[in-house]
Design goal:
single chain; alpha+beta; Immunoglobulin-like; Heat Shock Protein 90; 3 domains; 5-stranded mixed sheet; 13 strands; 43% helix
């Protein structure tokens, strides 16, 4: 018979009276058992053998010791077993048992793990849903800004440009008046062109590479044809549907625009080439010509190169300006897009 059970060093009478699996908390994992056997002969001659299913694979050796302890038991089901053998070698057929369960901490239970998984999934879905809502809100805002700029400011600048042309025909023909009206019209047209670039950049409908390529073509081709410059423009078809963030798209276009403008004004070239390709998740733009070239290290009062470098820095892009006198020029921009 098991005469005493201690849990965490304290006797537990309820455990002795238990007829089913006795439940213990995860931190009640130190147990001691005392046992004895009734004998009408010499009690000192009785030997005991025990095992704890869930820990011991085999029965212990027979011993006259009448107690055993187990510590640091992991959560799980256990059965303590003990039997005796008389001095004459007769083994008792009865095996005394004590069944107990050490429950896992709540954070290791199946229901807690399931609840945690559900919580993480719900949180992830909520974050995803929130981001989608924010992106949709941003898209609507960009569309509205583009529409407002076009409807309000764009139409106003167009009116100023038209009115300045009409006014120039109705005033006296003094050079001062003509110059002033001309400046008004020129400023309005420049502002209208800049506003058109802003509207194009803000509009979310233009966030694909094909829109960027088309915009560069529309700007470059008339200028090349006006200067009788032969040209090649190459945009790979596999880049057509590539998504380009607004800020990157805007600055790449403005850098290309500045490079093309400088090429037209200063290169005196007969051939120009614009090429895009993808390299290791980077978008690479190359604009080159066979003109007279220049020395990039020579100080200049022009701000074109400085503006290109500033815009490249804004999108963390690498800008390389290569040129030598008499050997043409090549501008390479590399920006990470994936």
């Amino acid at each position: 018979m098991i005469s005493k059970i201690e849990i965490m060093g304290k006797a537990d009478s309820a455990a002795l009276r238990s007829t089913s699996s006795y439940k213990l908390r995860h931190n009640q994992n130190f147990l001691s058992f005392e046992f004895a056997s009734i004998s009408f002969a010499q009690e000192n001659g009785i030997l005991y053998q025990y095992k704890l299913d869930g820990v011991d694979k085999h029965w212990s050796a027979y011993t006259n010791r009448r107690f055993v302890s187990y510590n640091s038991l992991s959560p799980g089901k256990y059965v303590f077993k003990v039997r005796s053998k008389a001095e004459n070698g007769l083994v008792c057929k009865n095996v005394t048992t004590f069944n107990f369960i050490i429950l896992p901490p709540f954070y290791k239970t199946w229901w807690f793990v399931l609840l945690l998984i559900i919580t993480v999934i719900s949180l992830g879905y909520s974050v995803y849903h929130y981001r989608v809502r924010q992106l949709l809100k941003l898209e609507r805002l960009r569309t509205r800004i583009a529409s407002d700029l076009y409807d309000d400011i764009g139409s106003t600048l167009s009116s100023i440009s038209i009115l300045s042309e009409i006014l120039s025909t109705q005033l006296d023909n003094t050079q001062r008046s003509i110059d002033m009206i001309g400046k008004i019209g020129s400023s309005a047209r420049n502002m209208l062109e800049s506003m058109d670039d802003i509207i194009w950049a803000v509009n979310p409908a233009n966030d694909k590479f094909q829109n960027l390529g088309l915009r560069i073509r529309e700007y470059a081709i008339p200028l090349f044809e006006l200067k009788n410059i032969k040209f090649q423009i190459h945009f790979p078809e596999q880049l057509a549907m590539l998504h380009i963030p607004m800020d990157i798209r805007r600055n790449v276009y403005l850098i290309a625009k500045e490079a093309i403008n400088n090429l037209i004004k200063y290169s005196e070239c007969q051939m120009a080439q614009i090429e895009f390709h993808e390299l290791h998740s980077n978008l690479v733009m190359t604009i080159q010509d066979n003109g007279k070239g220049f020395d990039p290290t020579t100080p200049s009062s022009r701000n074109g190169l400085k503006n290109m470098q500033r815009r490249a820095d804004q999108i963390r892009a690498a800008l390389d300006i290569g040129s030598e006198p008499g050997k043409g020029s090549q501008i390479t921009l590399q920006v990470k897009i994936l």
